[in-house]
Each structure stands twice: as C-alpha cells, then as structure tokens.
Amino acid sequence: MDTNSIADGSAGIPNRLRRFSTLKEPTDNELRSEIHRQFREAHQGHRPHAGLDPSRASTGVIWCTERAFQCGFSDNPSAWANLGQGAPEVDDEIPNIAPRPHTIDISVAAREYAPTAGTKELRQAVAHLYNEHHRKGKASQYTWENVCIVPGGRAGLIRIAAVLGNAYLGFFIPDYTAYNEMLSLFRNFAAVPVPLSEADQYHIHPDKIAEEISRGTSVILTSNPRNPTGQVVKNPMLAEIQDICRDRATLIMDEFYGGYNYETNCDGTVISAADNVHDVDKDDVIIIDGLTKRFRLPGWRIAWLVGPKEFIKALGSCGSYLDGGAAHPFQEAAVPMLDPPRVKEEMKGLQKHFKMKRDFVVGRLREIGFEIPYVPNSTFYLWLDLRGLPEDINDGLNFFAACLREKIIVVPGIFFDLNPSRRRDLFDSPCHPFVRLSYGPTMETLKKGMDGIERIVKKHGGFKHNASDS
What we know:
seven-stranded mixed sheet, three-stranded antiparallel sheet, 12 strands
C-alpha cells in the first residue's frame, strides 16, 4: 500500500460519523484525515460475524504496527525507525553489560510442562533477588511461595484480573495501552478512570489515592515507573501511597521499567514497592516485572508476580485455564541471570546507556523546535507535545500518519487515554495532541528517527506557536 494513502484527504469530506461527544463537532481536519477514519472504524466496533468483535483484536501499539505493515514496514524493517514498539534494544553492544544468551541448554525435565505457577527454582531466584535488593534487614522476607511465573506481563495482568472480586478498580490516565483490554474483558470489577494533570507532569499524589479510596475504590492499578510519561513515583511519596493503601486497598504495581531509573546517578538502584512492604503476606501489594524490559529479553516471555502467598496461590492456579504457564526451558535459563550482584552491575550499565540515549533524543527534539517541559526521569519513553505544530499534524493520529510516510513509527497519545467501557469519545481526549516516542531502540535507529521527524516539521512549515499557547 502506498504510504500517501494513509492520510490523503483529497477525496473530500466524508459523511459525518457518529459522535458520542456533545462538547464539540469534529474539525474538518479530523473529517478529511484517512487515519482518523481508520481509527474510528476500528474502534466503534464492526457488525458481528458469528459473535466476533474484531475491535478487540489489538492494542494501540499493534494497531500502529498494522498500519506500518500496510506501508511496507514488514518488507524491510531495517529501513524504518520504529520508535513505537515498547521494547529495549536487544543487541550485545551496550557497554558493561554481558551479552544476552545466544543458546540455551534444554534439560530432559524441561521437555515437560512446567507448573502453571512456574518452576520452584526460578520462583526462589526471584524471591532471593527481591530480598537482596529491596528487603535487606527486614524481618519479613519473600519466599518462593510469594512468586508466580507467568508467560509475559499481559498474561500476568489477565491472571490478576481473573482473580479479583467485586470491586471498583481505579486506573490512571494516561497509562499503558494494554490495560484497556484487560479492564474490558472481565465483569467481576468496575473500572474507574482517574485522570492525572499535565500541569504537574502527571504525578500520582498520595491525596489522589486517598480520595479514590474514600470513594470506594478497593483496587488500584498503575505502572511505576510510568508508561507513557517517563515519570516515576519514588520514596518517600511511594511509601506514603502504600501506607494509605495498607489494609484498605490492593495495590497492583506494574514495575517493568523499574531498572530504567535515572534519579540515583545511575548507581543500579531499581524502583520497587517491595522496599516499603511491611509484611510480605499481609500487605496487599502485587508487583509485576520480568525479563522483558530491564533484562532486554522480550522474546522469552518470562515475567513474574510477587505478592502475598494467598494471592499467588490463586494466580498460579488460574494459569491452568488462561495461558498454560511460561515455557519451561526459558525458566531454567533465567535462573542464573537473577544473581543479585550480577543484576546490580547490569542495571548500572543499563541506566548509563539509556540515559545517554534519552539526552540525545531530548536534545535533538529541542533543536528541531519541540517544547519539552520536563525530561523523563525513568523508562525509555518521551511524551511528546505536538500542539505547537501546524494544524494538519498537531494531533497524534495525523502526526503518526506523517511519520509513516517517512518510515517512522510512533504511538498516538489517544491510545493511552484508557477507555475500557468505550463510554467516551476519545477525540476530546487531552492525550490527543501527544505521541509516545520510544528511545528504546539502538542509537542508529534513533538518529534515523530524529532526522525523519525534522524533515516532517520542515515539510509542514515548521512550528507555528508554542504548545503552551494552545
């Protein structure tokens, strides 16, 4: 498919589509934009075919990748700058970090199914890592019974959703796109959105948590460090939030980016709520992490849930009917990678390398003319404000379409305004004029992407005004 067809509005204004919002009518720019029409068609639901709802088929990142495939991405991915995929570089070129395994030995035992809660050896290794890095000197220590191994973060989230009781579950906006699907699949809880403020860099404040609990929320889900804004809630604020939740609400902490912490001078410190847990079996804190991000092995699909034994037992059991558990050979191969001193040194190298890439991307974007009011202090994401650009590319979808023509992939901000019940029209979303840009890829890819974004801005006439004036 020719890339120009993605956002070609030459066919004229189409018939006006159904609109849920009463705040404003869609702009002519929205109506003329092919990429906007594609988004609406994919997300308002199609007529059912034998009970199929195709609109549930993909998350935001996958939707963007599918559009890129239509433009030739799958034919020659090396020619593209994929700044949309939420994965770190997996090459062996990062200084002071040991190469990733190129082969693994498969024991006779690993030919068998693994327990749906994971092998005891890997569960013990995870518990030991957390005790060494987050529980030193504390009376309450994690054991293997506090750990469940799952086949990736999404599988972990789905298991958690499956065992929740009737509850109000609070989630924050913006946040990780895959939460949208998890929050809409199950009917045993009601998902309650909690918008965060751009004015204070989308921070989660303790008083916000207290307010939600006072309204009846008994489960709180959040990424920390935060996707897509690149901000982290750290101590003492994190400890205060946990104190507020203790004995009142279950806290589900998605900590996949905990190793990408630039707040402690790249000393290898990993951000985790495990630091503040009083009793590992009584504090209702469930932590999600794995090999995907900080160990740079997304293809292995090895992740873990850490929490009270009672929760973990239920989470292990439900894997028998949800996902069948993580691959046995990769569980065996993961055990030596979790040696605490080795992990500490690896995190130092990881933080230095990704901080260098962050500074490069922020510097280039500012040179191009983007306003970046705050620099991410964690993750490998940048929440890029487009409001200073010309009207035809100053929203996430149209900027995404322009990027496709330059063989660049980003993720429109609209996907991070989680809308699991589809009760809101997302074109009124405060996330609409943003994109999430990843500096996870290699430096070569980042340079290619920044060059392409500079061409886009110049082609469309440069910046018209400051984003803060919008």
